[in-house]
Design a protein that fits this description.
With 251 residues, the protein is mostly helical. It has helices at residues 10-22, 25-40, 61-86, 100-127, 145-174, 179-192, 199-219, 223-242, 245-250; strands at 50-52, 133-135.
Amino acid sequence: MTHAVDQPTRRHTGIEVAIVLLLSLGASAVYAVVSLIAKLTAGPPLSQQTATLNPSQSPRPYLDLTYQMLGIFFALVPVLLALYLLGRRRAELGRPFLRPAYDLGWGFGLAAAIGIPGLLLVYVAAQLGLNAQIVPAALQPVWWAVPVLILKAVENAVVEEVIVVGYLMTRLRSLEWRLWHIVAASAVLRGSYHLYQGFGAFVGNAVMGVIFALFFRRSKRVMPLVIAHSLLDIVAFVGYTLLPDSWLSWL
């Protein structure tokens, strides 16, 4: 006698979400909170401290490159886990996987809409002492620095948009959460793992999270968000690396 495979219960789904988040960006959020507390209790004002996003891992260039590539690879493993757990519901992240004109158009549009106000917010937060001084990249001046920074930008985009938007919103919807509760959860999570940069970063990324979550809810596509996020991070990481020091001091 055969038995039908049980459908996931609400409890099982909730445990699954908790595990995926604790293996990925939920863990990052916890570390970010601890990092912020450490900065606030270190003595100097928050605005006089720094938050480095892409530090070098070794003074030996090719060992550093090895660490960087391993970090990118293992950061993507929770994405594969999330997609595997979604099973047939992966189609809810967008089918076909890539619609070039639509995805690129919306990706560039979202990047412009968020990037320009985001720069203003960073400036205001810095003036108010609500943010640490952000160093987007601190790799050695080696030939592979820019390609690795581009890969890091894409990695960040894939991890955040697939897990925090696509996976989390799909799972919370299956748990029958209300729309604004889902949007709030996604946005607060996005802001929380940026807290190591300061309070301004939390607010800015939470606002970005609301916009991205509502876009996903309407379009049923995660790829434009990946493209937009990749563009924002590429400009920040590579721009910081290539701009002259005199420009950076003015910024």
